[in-house]
Design a protein that fits this description.
The chain has 240 residues and is an alpha/beta fold. 38% of the residues lie in helices and 22% in strands. The longest helix has 19 residues.
Length: 240
């Protein structure tokens, strides 16, 4: 989506000063270097901070096209609310998963959540067969929403059952062979165990771009599984 739609020249990077934040920021920097994208602002912040306005004001002075932020839910909500208060506009604000995809983000950020985008590994309205049914059945049984970890565990049970049903016997070699030949459609998407980019027997996970639209988290990328069209560039705060 960065290559085909956003095409940013200058980006800003902010992230919490935890292992999660720093490792995600490192990956983003490396990806920007490969793509020739200029990082004009790069700063960590104290997890659980209350006042982000000085950092946001400094970031605004660098005039980024896009912001990439790695935060958990309360930080994420405060950052977006304070961006709105400062009338700090960018073409796209993207969260690195975590807080930006949770229902609590929308509840705490309010209307400042509108058009905020994020990456994620799974959402219930992704267009894989059975995804929405799993979500609804999980809610009925446990009275809470599953996250992508729950969806992964559910898909894993199907992978195990499929491999055992095809294995010639239950010896390690036979089960390994059956797993290697897996070609299965699940609520997490297609599952195959392949060797790629230095990984061995690894499935290629699909990462989605989601965007809050009218209080709902919509899948906007990849386009073949989207639940709604992306909004880009996003309207300025005063025009929303």
């Amino acid at each position: 989506m960065i290559e085909k739609v956003v095409k940013p020249k200058n980006v800003a990077l902010i992230y919490e000063n935890t292992d999660f934040g720093t490792s995600s920021a490192k990956g983003f920097r490396e990806d920007c270097a490969k793509r020739g994208i200029n990082i004009v602002f790069d700063q960590h912040y104290e997890h659980g901070a209350i006042d982000f306005k000085p950092m946001l004001a400094n970031m605004r002075s660098t005039n980024p096209d896009m912001v990439f932020a790695v935060s958990y839910v309360m930080d994420a909500a405060m950052i977006c609310k304070q961006m709105k208060e400062l009338d700090f506009n960018v073409d796209l604000f993207v969260g690195g998963g975590a807080g930006y995809t949770m229902p609590e983000f929308k509840d705490n950020a309010g209307d400042a959540s509108e058009y905020i985008a994020s990456t994620t590994l799974w959402v219930p309205n992704v267009a894989w067969p059975g995804a929405s049914e799993f979500f609804e059945n999980y809610q009925k049984k446990y009275q809470k929403e599953p996250d992508y970890h729950g969806a992964q565990a559910y898909a894993t049970m199907y992978v195990i059952a499929d491999a055992l049903s095809r294995a010639e016997d239950f010896t390690p070699a036979a089960v390994q062979k059956a797993l290697k030949e897996t070609d299965l459609q699940t609520i997490m998407g297609p599952i195959k165990f392949e060797d790629w980019e230095g990984y061995t027997n690894q499935n290629k996970p699909t990462t989605y771009v989601v965007q809050w639209q009218k209080g709902k988290l919509e899948v906007v990328w990849p386009e073949n599984v989207k639940s709604a069209d992306y909004v880009y560039p996003v309207p300025k705060w005063r025009e929303r």
